[in-house]
Amino acid sequence: MKTILWATLTGNGNYAQSSSNHPPKEEALGDFAAHARKAGNFIVGRRTFEGMQASGSGGDFAEMDIVVVSGSVKEIPGVTVVGSPSDALSYLRDKGYPTALISGGADLHNAFLSQGLVDELIFNIAPVLEGKGLNLLIDTEKYQYKEVELLNFKSLGSGVVQVHYAIDHTI
Ligand SMILES: NC(=O)c1ccc[n+]([C@@H]2O[C@H](COP(=O)([O-])OP(=O)(O)OC[C@H]3O[C@@H](n4cnc5c(N)ncnc54)[C@H](OP(=O)(O)O)[C@@H]3O)[C@@H](O)[C@H]2O)c1
């Protein structure tokens, strides 16, 4: 099973955070929905999932296998709750999905990256600069730099640019 990490970054390379004052671009949200539909699933951190529920966007994904990762919560109605990134992947692999989509937020993305559990990266770069922010971190004990292969790039409209990379785990 292939794992794809999907994230929005700011133009100055931060991990984009959304709020009611700074909502995500429609183009980025539409792109996430398209990837989630294609995969039939997504894996999400407990805090981001609660944010989706609060904003009412959880219902947009009612047909999908939503896997919430949490160490503190054991059950949430309508979704599957697991205790770790590897448990999330085992659950989706056992259900026969060819692809797992990792949708965020920062803590969860960094847990997958630091454990070497990501095969491809899809970054949507939004036309915004952020003063302070979050970063995506790889396994910092193993790598200072890790080269990745550019698979594709395209414009999503309204200044959002998508880059798609593959991570080679053999190097
Ligand atoms: N740029 C983007 O593409 C994007 C996408 C989504 C969200 N966001 C932004 O990201 C922010 C939210 O991210 P966040 O980092 O605060 O929260 P998060 O990653 O959504 O959720 C964090 C929670 O997930 C659980 N978790 C994460 N890693 C785990 C692990 N290895 N094992 C067990 N549980 C684990 C823990 O839940 P428990 O506390 O229950 O143990 C943890 O507190 C918001 O600002 C949101 O706007 C951005």
TrEMBL record:
Bacterial bifunctional deaminase-reductase C-terminal domain sequence ranges: 16-161
Gene3D superfamilies linked to this entry: Dihydrofolate Reductase, subunit A
SUPFAM superfamilies assigned: Dihydrofolate reductase-like
PANTHER family for this protein: DIHYDROFOLATE REDUCTASE FAMILY PROTEIN (AFU_ORTHOLOGUE AFUA_8G06820) (PTHR38011)
Family annotation (Pfam families): RibD_C
Protein name (Swiss-Prot/TrEMBL): Dihydrofolate reductase family protein
